[in-house]
Amino acid sequence: MPKLDLAAASWTDVRDHVAAGNTLAFLPFGALEQHGPHLPLSTDTIQCVGVAEALAEHYSGLLLPAVPYGETWDNGRFPGTISLSASTVSAICRDIGASAQSFGVTTLVIVNGDFGNRAPVHAAAREMSIGGFDVFVLDYPGLVEVGDAVKESPWAAPGLCHADELETSMVLALEPALVHPDRYEASYPELPADFGRRPIRFDTLSPSGVFGDPRPATAAKGETIIAFVVERSVGEIDAHLDAIGATDASPIGSGDDIAATAPAAYQQGAS
Predict the structure, then answer these.
(1) How far, in Å, CA of 211 to CA of 156, rounded?
(2) What is the pLDDT of residues 168-183, one digit of tens each?
(3) β-pairing verdict for 24-29 and 107-112
(4) What is the mean pLDDT of residues 82-107?
């Protein structure tokens, strides 16, 4: 049975899908924030939807509509960025989770697309899990590893992906019409020693909003990155379901099935 996209489904479709034992749901949680002059504000949402769609298909799960806003205070001075408070992000997770649980979802997998969401999303997941509803969060497992394998440009900081080669490649793979190659520019700002450990507005570090070099980006690299992250995500979800003893949300395939659909570069171990 294929995934069920709630945005296009009727209530009876959802009832029947859940009644058939497909009780694993996926929530892409994105953001609307600047990603340099060459990428859309919706970059984080586009990316996490791409991963969530593949996972929902793999597990014959329920795909919830994406949350297109997140906690992105650090990009707030760039026009177009819309930021939620951390408490609002947590509240949205809890409210969506409660509704999903009410119609039979047993595990909610939140595919987080933005670093700023991590703390509030994980806090909400912990609270819901303590309350008896299983919620699991994915933060792009394997992204740094595959980034090391495919990147031709240096990291702006270890593991920092923001409007760089990796993010540009992923959007090229998912929504190429929204990318503006004529606006590519590299930016390697000097970062303070405590970068990532305290709130810092990105405009004070990179006037363009770019951290890295988008110029070597390709759609093929984006496909490789997404396939790797999806495979790693399947591994984490399977391990989680095994740990909690879930039997009603078993996958319809294996990680090997996903790897088989990845570009040849990935199957050969791109470097």
Answers:
(1) 5
(2) 999 999 999 999 999 9
(3) parallel
(4) 98
Q: Write down the pLDDT at residue 197.
A: 85
- Round to the nearest angstrom and report the end-to-end CA distance of the chain: 36
If DSSP codes are grouped into helix, strand and coil, which group holds residue 172? helix
| Contact present, 143 and 116 (Cβ < 8 Å) | no
What pTM, to 2 d.p., does this model score?
0.90
Q: Give the H/E segment covering residue 266.
A: helix 264-267
Banded pLDDT at 266 (limits 50, 70, 90): very low
Find tokens 């177009």 and name the residue. Answer: 80
The 3-class secondary structure across 14-76, one letter per residue, is HHHHHHCCCCEEEEEECCECCECCCECCCHHHHHHHHHHHHHHHHHCCEECCCECCECCHHHC
> 193: Cβ–Cβ under 8 A, 6 or more apart, which residues?
none
CA distance 42 to 224: 21
